Amino acid sequence: MNRLQANLLLTLAAAIWGSSFVVQQIGVGNLGAISFTGARFLVGALIVFPFALKQFHRVERDVRKFKIDDWLVLVITGTVLLTAAVLQQHGILRTSVINSGFLTSLYVPLVPFLGFFFLRRKVPFIVWPASICCFIGTYIMSGAHRVELVEGDLWVISSTLFWAVHVMLVGAMASRTRAPLVVAATQFTVCGILGLTLGCFVEKPLVADFLGAAWGICYIGLFSVGMAFTLQVVGQRYTPAPDAAIILSSEAVFAAISGMLFLGERLTIMQFMGGFLIFASILAVELLPYTRIGRVRSLD
Known about the structure:
Order of helices and strands: HHHHHHEHHHHHHHHHE
Number of domains: 1
Distance between the termini: 27 Å
Shape: globular
Strand content: under 5%
Number of strands: 2
Structural class: mainly alpha
């Protein structure tokens, strides 16, 4: 797979996530955030598992053997994913879809920051302004300047650090193992089992609660988890984490498009400009590194 194909997969993942915020708010029923998160990721794990098992046998036979360290990091990746998803879900239930989509995008500038300052990874210069412009574009699109922060917003903000770490871990493990489907299935399984176990102790859900949220669990489990998160893992094997974060920020654009198509919402001229800023940032981070300017200006 070349980088363009990988970026298209990441864009498709963003499109699926952008259309899922509404379902995450209205499809939960009486189920708590931890239990809902565990259930939807376990559904995603069941969907991906057959394909992951086939890939695992092929990689073990033809490419490399999985080591204990690989499984340990994958367990950590699944735990980070659970933490990020639970914090975000808890916040989504206590704020607006607009705010949650906007605040989640805070992880975009965090990814190159963490990579550069903590992992000492070279970051192309264009990534820094592109990350900031993506964040500003999301801010304009969401109309969040009209809303004061509430409790739910703080929960969503707290999830962004874990989303940033997750993006970096996924990229590293997809490249290291060369088995993106195994990475996806393992992190989903860890997230699902831990989430349901913790949810049973903390939230004490009833069977009726799961039945009431069944359609939301199945929809998010199939599309947002089984498809989108798997596309993310596959795409990040061929795309650097900072670039991937910028591309994935386009979920705000797709959320707005979904609102127009299915909810009859309308965007103002300013919001269209915000979407254009995100789109321009994605093009810049993809095209400028191949130009003379992009090659010369980089941070080591």
